[in-house]
Design goal:
- With 167 residues, the protein is α+β, with helices and mostly antiparallel strands.
- The chain folds into two domains: 33 residues; 104 residues, Immunoglobulin-like.
- Helices cover 20% and strands 35% of the residues.
- The protein is built from four helices and seven strands.
- The strands form two sheets. A four-stranded antiparallel β-sheet has the order 1-2-7-6, with no helix packed on it.
- A hairpin with a 2-residue loop joins strand 6 and strand 7.
- It is flat, with a radius of gyration of 31 Å.
- The termini are far apart.
Length: 167
């Protein structure tokens, strides 16, 4: 076996080596520095981001759906939201809850004044089964919890027992 053919370099001709290839740890360090710089840049921009609280972007309230024999119950946790900022609508096959969360915090001291505002909108659509009596739907809002009661129609309440055979 000829080792000279396997090695791509020789002593006579030197090929310039890139810095990253010379020291892989240096390349890793530079990559990590870039990641931390990007992270800190986005973190430090937060107070100066036009009044938008990045923590509220993509705000999705927690929603629970339960069903019993007579009705479907939808509860949504909406803390810090006013009743006037909630929109509940119903179609034949879906319940839609929309709203906007507005937070305003003011802090006054002897030598300073600070005011922060942030906003976040949400939109949730819950698919519904057939048999909801749309004329008798009720929505209540108390202590930051929205409760929507969707009564079932008489046909949807009926359960038909199906006998099970062994053959």
């Amino acid at each position: 076996m000829n080792l000279k053919k396997l090695v791509p370099w020789s002593r006579r001709k030197e090929i310039p080596v890139r810095r990253e290839e010379a020291d892989p740890f240096l390349a890793l360090k530079e990559e990590m520095d870039n990641l931390f710089e990007e992270f800190s840049r986005s973190w430090l921009d937060f107070p100066f981001s036009g009044g938008i609280d990045r923590r509220l972007e993509g705000y999705v309230p927690r929603i629970d759906v339960s069903e019993d024999g007579d009705e479907i119950l939808v509860t949504a946790e909406l803390p810090g939201i006013d009743e006037k900022d909630i929109d509940v609508s119903l179609t034949r096959d879906a319940l839609t809850i929309k709203g906007e969360k507005k937070i305003s915090k003011e802090d006054k001291g002897k030598d300073y004044y600070r005011m922060e505002r942030s906003y976040g909108a949400f939109h949730r659509t819950i698919p519904l089964p057939e048999g909801v009596d749309t004329d008798k739907v009720k929505a209540t809002f108390k202590n930051g919890v929205l409760t929507v009661t969707l009564p079932k129609t008489a046909e949807a309440k009926e359960r038909k027992k199906i006998p099970v055979s062994t053959s």
